[in-house]
Amino acid sequence: MSDDIFHSWKEERFIVAPSVLVDNEKLIILTDISYWNTHYEELKDWCDENLSETQGMTVVCPNDETLMLFVLKWS
How far apart are CA 35 and CA 50, in angstroms? Predict the structure, then answer.
């Protein structure tokens, strides 16, 4: 058992922030820094095509449909 409370999050490429933390948009926290560094250009292209935006180590999607597309693409 790890003392790191974020241990399970670090095992994933990203996590979807609970809706109580954001207003209308959907917030994705990118947790695998190495993976996203390697795929940064592909991620930026995906965001441009899907009306989403990278903000530091997060991606903001406008709605549930775009969030689903993100999860299907990057899982």
Answer: 20
